[in-house]
Amino acid sequence: MRRSGWRGLALDAAGASAYLVVAGVSLARSVRPGRTLVPADVLTQGPPFRALAGGFHAHNPVVSDASSQFFPWFRFLGNALRHGGIPQWNPLLLGGVRVTPNGYVSAYYPPTWLVRWLSPFDAYNAFVLFHLFLGALGIYVFARVLGVRRLPAWTAGLLALAAAFWVHWSLHLLHLVAMVGLPWALVATHLVITRPTARRAAGLGAVLGLWWLGGNPQYLYFGTLATAGYAVALIVRDARVERRRVGAAALGLSAGVALGFLLAAPVVLPTVGLQPNILREREPITSTTRTHLPLRQAVRALVPDATGNPVDHFIYASTEEFSMDSPFVGVTAVLLGAAALGATRRRARWLLLAGVGAAVGLAFSGPPHWLLYHVVPGYDRFRGSARWLAVLPVFALPLAAIGLEAILDGERRARRALTVGAAAALAVVAGWYARELLVRGAPHAYLGRRALVAAGFVVAVATAAHLARVRPRAAAGVVVLCALGEIALNTPRWYPSVVERSAYPPVAVARIAAERGGRIVRAGDRVHDVVFEPDIPLAYAVDEAQGLDTYFPRAYDRYLRLIDDYGRLALDTNAAPPVAGPERLGSRLLDALDVRTVISSRRLPTPPDYPVLASGPAFVYARASAGPAIVVATAAGATERQMWASVADTGWDPTRTAAVMRLRRPVHGGPGTVVAAGAGLDHDRWLVDAPRGGFLRVSGR
Questions:
Q1: Secondary structure (H, E, C), 382-419
Q2: What integer is the mean pLDDT of 112-124?
Q3: Could you read off the pLDDT of 164-187 as tens digits, one per residue?
Q4: 3-class DSSP state of 547
Q5: 269 pLDDT exceeds 90?
Q6: Is 597 in contact with 516 (CB distance < 8 Å)?
Q7: Backbone angles phi, psi at 632, to 5 degrees
Q8: Fewest CB atoms within 10 Å of the CB: 219, 411, 511, 577?
Q9: DSSP classification of residue 494
Q10: What local confidence, expressed as pLDDT, does residue 4 receive?
Q11: Percentage helix, strand, coil, to 5, in the chain?
């Protein structure tokens, strides 16, 4: 390698190291030894944790999914990896569910395996920090591939650490993987199209394979559509403008996609195959046409807290969901993007501008989704059209890099475009704040401070643009300082800093349930004060007959509604609600699930054979059960309809008879005993003594 090549590699390594330092400093308060960014403080919103903490105390209440679903699954996966290998089955939720897919962690994604060697909290911290770094580095590499020089490209990557959508959803592990993997997918796609080789096709396959292995399906779907659109636009541009032949590029793309699919098959195939068996197989059209951001919230691209901020315990004229879905990528990036519109001899800007326009248009409007819903296969599987903002940083930040490069080159048109953009930005901020002043009850002081901060960054970046005419290095320094300032003001405070020792504290309900074995079932209020909320028991290795699952099994919903018909609640929330009344707790269907413990946030009028084991803040009752495995004397083959008819029969006794689909011949046996003889990741071992034969029914398999 020539000296210049080594020097360039050293500069790239230094830039990457700087990203890691900035990301580490931004998260230092949350990931320092003994601390975690897992928002376990949000558990105090419900019993029994609220009583232990003396009330609800949460730094950021809207990231509760990370503490109630993502981290419990992460801890479960770590336990499984330490005791054998990649698990296929999780018996602790809903009577047992598949591990792949689950919507929270990917057992086949290599960075997830950190939890095999580190503590779950340290692994979670490292996972988030590493992927924020990976996203920043991906933006830098993408800008470099587009021909941008190092310093502007590095500045664009730095701004990725201020991209609010990525930061807000970064505690959702699969979401984060899907978002920060997109720039790498675009890099690999661009390289294959512009200069197709076997090595580059293999690189594309490796990138797509890892991306599809570890990402959230919805964000992967949006990202894959964005990548496909970029590939088509780039091929058309090269064919018409560069006069390149597209045959080799198409072949390289096809080979890369095929290789990526093969690598990701352990996740992709089960995900596709599971769709017909889950409740939410298809979303209504209103889930896309009516879930975009209101146009008035576009001001958040300049004033990120224009609708409040959950960490300030204040959301104004918005919802919790919309507070997460932010278009903010930095005032600096917006103005540099405006400068890119005036840049000369940079064809890539139009591809990037098209990407920005598509992301913003889809996030802020409803009609385009009607067409996509009816035309694009798979679009009807997802909801939340505002989530298209996940792809915005991937196009907006390289566009900002092009603008900064033009400014540093002294291009007059770029400088004028930035000046016009700055004037427009000041007008938008001033107009927005003037309107808010007319709203009675609006938090004028809070919003006024945010408006001043935004205006300050606008003025600083505009000043840097004019300074670049005579002192480009100083101008670049001002822009970098602006980027660092926006990161410092917005990113660190989003993350909680929870003492690891106090996260997931010992609680009586978990201790009693673990000692008794079997499963727990919730009873009582379905809306308020749900005790030991769904999936939290997973963090304590406690089995529950209910729970929350992105892929809620259709058959299990039907089974639970035979116990207590809760209507559409599981369909609407992906969670099985508490049993409404104590009279339903005697259902034989709960016996088949080996339910031994009943929990509630209030005292239940239970009969004497349900002794109280704990009183307040969580009420715990004992329930008799035949055990996790029993010998059934009589079993008969059945069609699906006959099987469900048998289960729905109120006189059915699951300890005596069984209606089994695909059973080859009837079973006529007698009583027997079953003793547990050990268990593995995906299997149990039982010692069965049944002299006359019988059918072994195992709970939750």
A1: CCCHHHHHHHHHHHHHHHHHHHHHHHHCCCHHHHHHHH
A2: 97
A3: 999 999 999 999 999 999 999 999
A4: strand
A5: yes
A6: yes
A7: -95, 130
A8: 511
A9: G
A10: 63
A11: 60, 10, 30
Is the model's pLDDT at 701 over the cut of 70?
A: no
**More confidently predicted of 485 and 344:** 485
- Contact assessment for residue 188 and residue 194, using Cβ atoms and an 8 Å cutoff: no
> Maximum distance among all alpha carbons in the chain?
96
Beta-carbon contacts of 88 under 8 Å, excluding residues fewer than 6 positions away, are 98, 99, 100, 681, 682
Cβ 400 vs Cβ 156: under 8 Å: yes
Stated as kind and residue range, the H or E segment containing 80 is helix 71-82
What one-character DSSP code corresponds to residue 595? Answer: E
DSSP, collapsed to helix, strand or coil, labels residue 272 as helix
pLDDT higher than threshold 80 for residue 682:
no
| Lookup: tokens for 93 | 């939720």
Q: Provide the residue type at 63 as one letter.
A: V
Bond preceding residue 617 cis, omega within 30 of 0: yes
8 A C-beta contact, residue 202 and residue 256: yes
Rounded CA-CA distance 404/333 in Å is 9
d(CA 321, CA 383) in angstroms, rounded, equals 12
Name the CA radius of gyration of the chain, rounded. 28
> What phi and psi values does residue 658 have, to the nearest 5 degrees?
-145, 140
Distance of alpha carbon 190 from alpha carbon 667, whole angstroms: 62
Work out the average pLDDT over 595-605: 93
CA distance 63 to 494: 10
Q: How many CB atoms lie within 10 A of CB 451?
A: 22
Question: CB-side exposure of 367: number of CA atoms within 13 Å?
Answer: 0
DSSP category for residue 579: B
**Within a 10 A sphere around the Cβ of 345, how many other Cβ atoms?**
8
Residue 661: φ, ψ to 5°: -70, 140
Closest alpha carbon to 337 in 293, 296, 393, 294: 393
SS3 198: helix
The amino acid occupying position 636 is: A
- Determine the number of helices (DSSP H) and then strands (DSSP E) in the chain: 26, 20
In whole angstroms, what is the distance from residue 241 CA to residue 656 CA? 76
| Cα gap 520→537, rounded to integer Å | 9
- pLDDT > 90: what percent of the chain? 86
User: In this structure, are strands 519-522 and 595-600 parallel, antiparallel, or unpaired?
Assistant: parallel
Dihedral over alpha carbons 167, 121, 701, 585 (to 10 degrees): -90
Render pLDDT for 203-223 as a digit per residue (tens, 0 to 9): 999 999 999 999 999 999 999
Mark out the alpha helices in 146-216 (DSSP H runs). 150-159, 164-168, 173-194, 198-214
Helices (H), 468-546: 472-490, 508-516, 536-539
528 pLDDT above the threshold of 80: no
Task: Tell me how far CA of residue 662 lies from CA of 224, 325, 642, in angstroms.
Answer: 40, 47, 12
Q: Is 426 exposed, middle or buried (0-12, 13-18, 19+ CB in 10 A)?
A: middle
Q: 630 forms bridges with which residues in the sheet?
A: 697
- DSSP secondary structure letters along 624-668: ----SEEEESEEEEE-HHHHHHHHH-TT--TTTEEEEET-SS-EE
Task: Tell me the pLDDT band of 596, cut-offs 50, 70 and 90.
Answer: very high
- Provide the phi-psi class of 291: left if phi over 0, else alpha when psi is between -120 and 50, else beta: alpha
**Residue in 246, 235, 249 with CA at minimum distance from that of residue 201:** 249
Q: Which two tokens stand for residue 558?
A: 């039907």
The pLDDT of residue 370 is above 90? yes
State the helix-helix crossing angle for 3-31 and 150-159, rounded to 10 degrees.
20
